[in-house]
Amino acid sequence: MDSLKGVYCVKLKVKPKRNPQQDKAQSELEESVPVYATLQEQEQMLKKHKSEYRDAILERVKLIGNRDADGQLIASTPTHIVTCQHRVSKVLDEDKAREILARKGLLDEVEKTEIYLDENEISRLFEQGRITPKELDHMLVISQETDALYVTAKNKTS
Predict the structure, then answer these.
(1) DSSP of the chain, one letter per residue?
(2) In a domain, 97, yes or no
């Protein structure tokens, strides 16, 4: 060890070697990520502004619009025609439907028994070891596959 006396160790930061294709990809990534992040911020602002304008326009059309034969409200500006269609979504109130249909003797015609596999019960069987991982894997298929992309700004320190 005496032979190392007076010798200083210097820790060098060595970057792994890359091929030209990786260097190009890194360069392109560094160029495109800030643009993407800016567009993402602008998109959020645009969605907010669009929603605000939509609400204001609907309010004004409801005040000054004229109903056509189909019940739509129509308003116009020198450059655009604005049509407001009122839409209603309805869902079946099963209790009321059962009451009415039972009273009319029609319930048997519309009541159906659905047979299905309970995924929670399949998971329970797997956890108990009654289904092997290989068997479970054969039961599962990919219904949708996507890639999520999250871009967040780094905190800038000066």
Answers:
(1) -GGGTTPPP-----PPP--HHHHHHHHHHHHHHHHHHHHHHHHHHHHHHHHHHHHHHHHHHHHH-EE-TTS-EEEE-SS-EEEE---------HHHHHHHHHHTT-HHHH--PPP---HHHHHHHHHTTSS-HHHHHHH---S---------PPPP--
(2) no
Cβ burial, residue 134 (10 Å; 0-12/13-18/19+): exposed
Q: Quote the domain boundaries for residue 71.
A: 17-85
Q: What is the pLDDT of residue 9?
A: 55
Query: How many domains, the chain?
Result: 1
pLDDT of 93 over the 80 cut: yes
Domain contains 109: no
Residue 3 has pLDDT above 80, yes or no: no
Taking the CA atoms of 79, 83, 84 and 89 in sequence, report the sign of the dihedral they define: negative
The tally of CA atoms less than 13 A away on the side-chain side of residue 95 is 0
Confirm whether 129 is domain-assigned. no
Q: Is residue 70 part of a domain?
A: yes
Q: Whole-prediction pTM value?
A: 0.52
Name the residue among 151, 145, 146, 154 with its Cα closest to residue 44.
151
